[in-house]
Amino acid sequence: MEKLILTVAITGAELNKKICPALPITPDEQAKDSCDSVEAGASIIHLHVRDDQGNPSQKLEHFQRSVDAILKKCHKRPIIQFSTGGAVGEKIENRIASLALKPDMASFNLGTMNFGEDIFVNTFSDMRALARAFKKYQVVPEFEIYDAGHLDNLKKLIKENEITPPYHCQFVLGVPGAMLGDISALVYLVQHLPQNSTWGVAGIGRFELPLATHALLMGGNVRVGLEDNIYYEKGRLASSNAELVSRIKRIAIELGRDIASPEETKKLLDLA
Predict the structure, then answer these.
(1) Residue pair 173/146 in contact by the 8 Å Cβ criterion
(2) 189-225 per-position pLDDT tens digit
(3) Is omega for the bond preceding 166 within 30 degrees of 0, making it cis?
(4) How far is it, in rounded angstroms, from Cα 219 to Cα 222?
């Protein structure tokens, strides 16, 4: 098996410090948490940012100040992956705007879906606009797949030549309203990937650990982090993102999977 690529989703757009005191929100907090997570084994930082009031933001200046803080503090340079999902309800033009900063990677959502009590809108018009922005700014996409139909949407965009290989896919499973975080769901999705694909899995909440463990055995990659799951175990909040990363690294080594460094991850994902 290839070395394991560990992604950490450090902040997200849904939580606050009342729910999760360890959540990093300010640029300095995000920088410390990112660096600790990289030292623990992560190579990709999946980045949502906040404004001065702690609200989710897609403004370029907020992305830039967090990136600057992370790169200044980290001894090992991580791969920084922007979220173009933003908070539910954010306009597509605002979600696209951050690509102008040319991050190493960015997320690419592949369909409209129920997201808890909300609706996360990603029309084909939105997706085509997003695909063209990725090409314009020469940013590598990671395709976020929350449901089986999102794979069909990916294949449709491939057929239309809107996107080109390789296809880096992240299965985000267990979101209320989308595909269940069941092992059979993961197996189905892996079996139906297009050619020239790599894949990883992000299990939401209680699905994080079992899905991560199965991905390790199946040769896939793993995303963890407080965006996806705030508990280390039932009834006990995680103390940091790095704590969640360290657990997966330990299990991976026990199962015979070496951990990819940021530089090795660049080669595995064909990042410039």
Answers:
(1) yes
(2) 999 999 999 999 999 999 999 999 999 999 999 999 9
(3) yes
(4) 10
- Residue 123 corresponds to which tokens in the numbers above? 């029309």
Segment (H or E) for 133: helix 124-137
Q: Which residue has the tokens 């039932």?
A: 234
Q: How far is CA 220 from the centre of its chain?
A: 14
CA 38-231-176 angle, 5° bins: 105
Q: What is the pLDDT of residues 73-124, one digit of tens each?
A: 999 999 999 999 988 888 999 999 999 999 999 999 999 999 888 999 999 9
- For residue 86, is it left (φ>0), alpha (ψ between -120 and 50) or beta? left
CA 149 to CA 157: how far, in whole Å?
Answer: 13
120 within 8 A of 112, measured Cβ to Cβ: yes
* pTM, two decimal places: 0.96
Asked if residue 271 lies in contact with residue 5, where contact means CB atoms within 8 angstroms, the answer is no
Second-level CATH architecture of 6-268: Alpha-Beta Barrel (3.20)
Handedness of CA 107, 110, 111, 113 (dihedral sign): negative
> Where do the domains of the chain lie?
6-268
